[in-house]
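The following block was generated as part of the benchmark described in Methods. Ligand: zinc ion.
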Amino acid sequence: MELTHDLDLIRKRLKIGRSHIAKTTDELISTLDDFLQAADQLSVNPTQDQEFSQSVLQLFTETQRILPLKAVLAEHRETYAYISRLHKDIELKFTVNPELLGTQKAQGLRRDLVDKMVAQQFVLEGTVEICEDFQQVRNLSIISPSLREQYQATMVFIRQLEAGDVDQALQWQTQVCLPVRLVFMLHKAKFVRILKNRNASEAVKYAKEHFEPFTDLEKPEIERLMGALIFTGNLSESPYRDLAHPDFESQLFRHIATEACRSIGLPLSSGLETVIAAGVQAMPQLLQAAPLLQDRLWRTQFPVEMKLSPDLRFHSLFVCPVTKEVTGADNPPMLLPCGHAISRHALESLAKSSARGKFKCPTCPVESGSKDAMQLVLS
Ligand SMILES: [Zn+2]
C-alpha cells in the first residue's frame, strides 16, 4: 500500500537523518573540546598564546567545514519533503467529508487532553528531556519532576516484567511504591514458577519466607497456593490448572503493569496510539453516520453507537432498556429491588404514570416504587 510505503520511507529517512545529525554533533563537540583544552593551557601558561591562536583558527576552519546548523537544517528539509509526500498521498487517497468536518468543529478539540497525551508519550518513549522542553514551550506543568521520576521508575519496572524477570522486578518494586496486593502477585508468580519446576520443598520455603506480610490481606489466595502444593508435578491436571496455563504469567504481569501504571496515573499504552487505533475503527462508522451527525451537536453523548474492539473499551456503559439512552451523570442507572436496572429518567416516568406510586419492572412482573431503587455506580 502506498501510504505504508510512504511511512517506511519516512522511518528510514529519520534513521539516516538521526545518524547524520549525531555525527555532526560529535564532530562539533570534539572540535570544541580541543579548543577548550587549548584555552585551559593558555590560562596555565600565557606564553602559549601562539598555539592558542592556532586553535582559534582551527575551530573557525572546522566549524566552517561542518556548518552544524546548515547540516541539521538540510536533514530536516529532506525529512519534511518525505512527510509532505505522505500528506499529499493521504489527501489523494481519502476525500474529505464536509459533514464530518462540521461535527468536529461542533465538538471542539480538548487541547488539555492532547497536551497530556503528548507529554505522557514522551515519557513512555523514554525521552524525558523532550517532555520537559515540550512543557516549557507550552507553559504546562502536567508532569512534575517527582512524578516524572515515578514514571521513569515504573517504566523500568514494566520493562523487567515484560522481560519476565520476576527477580529483578521484586527487587525494583520498592522503587515504584507498588500497592501491597501487587507485591503479593509478584511473589505469587515466583512461587508458581518454583512449583512448575516440581520443587515443592523449595516452594514451601519461599512461601514461609515471603508470604507472611500478606497473611491477613491475601489469606484465601495463600491457602489456594498451599493447596496447589499437593499437585506439584501434576498441576495441569489438577483443580489448580489455571496456574499451569501457558499464559498465566504473562497475564499476571500484564495486570501488575496496568495496575502499577494506574496507581500513579500513567497509561500503560500510548494515548496517541489508542486514539489513532480507535479512529481507524470508528472512521467507517462515522462516515456512514455523517448525515446524522449534522443534525445534532455532540454534547456529552455521541448520537451513534461506535463498535470498537474490546481492548479499546475503557468504560462500562449502561443503555437503559426503556429509553434506549446511554446513562450518564445526569441520568444514572438505577437498580430496582428485583435486580433489574433502568435509567433514572425511565424510573421517574414510570413512577409518574402509576396511580399508586408503584409500578411493574419493565423486564419482570415485580412491583416497586421509585424510593425502592438504588443508584448504580459503574466503574
Ligand atoms: Zn425486574
